[in-house]
Structures are given as C-alpha cells and as structure tokens.
Amino acid sequence: MELLVTVVIIGILAGVTSFSFSKALQKAKAKTAKKDLLMIKAAQAIYRAKHGYYYPHTPVHGGGPNGSTGFMDAALNANLGLNFQPDSGDICTSLSHSCSNQDLPNDFDCTVICGWVGGGWGYKLTEADDMPFCLVQPGFDPCPE
To answer: What is the pLDDT of residues 25-35, one digit of tens each?
Structure first.
C-alpha cells in the first residue's frame, strides 16, 4: 500500500513538472522569436542604408506584385548577414523566419512562426513597430508571454 502511494505521488509530481517544463520552453522560444525579429529589424536598417531599399527588393520563387514574397531562414541569412539555424524540438518543429516587402522601398513586414501539428503561434514586426507583437490569425494559439 505504501509503495502504491509513493508511485502515485511520484506520478503526480512528474506530470506537474513536465507541464511546467513545457510552458517554460514555450516562453523561451517566444523570447527567442522576439529577439530574432529585433535582429532582423537592425539588419534591415543596415541593408537599406547600403542599397536604398529594404530586403527583399525583387520577387523570388514566383513572388507577388511589387516584390512581395515570403523568404525563409537561408535567404535572410545570406542577404541580411544573419545566422538563423534550423531549430527542432517537441514544442515547435522550428522557428520559421520570413519577410516581405509590400511598399517598395519604404517598408518591410517580418514574422517568426512557431508551429506544430494542430497549432502554433507567431510574432510580427514591421518597419514602423518598435517591438514585436503577437500575430493573431485563425488556427493560432495565444502567444506565450
């Protein structure tokens, strides 16, 4: 009987601990996403100073009107001098970075998405924003704070 009580108590503690650990991982990824967006904004300012416009300037991979298109980590790394690495884990399959340029040459719109099967969350930052804000869209969870 005493052994059974001990096993039950250990099971309850393990369940609470794993939930707390998962929540802590989400918060850490959210902080990383915000930091990444602030790094992209600084890199965009340098890019514009050198080229006269924000990255991306021309459509790639099909693209859209006025150079609007999404870009992933490798293109941001190469063109903005960043070093985002693929990041995998149980909480997010990865942090996915992308930018588009809707209003040449005066604006950019960048996002970092943390997605997994059945959910996800994201942050967004534009040229006019001082700090990243939670990206609200259908199917997304509230951003961890």
So the answer is: 888 888 888 99
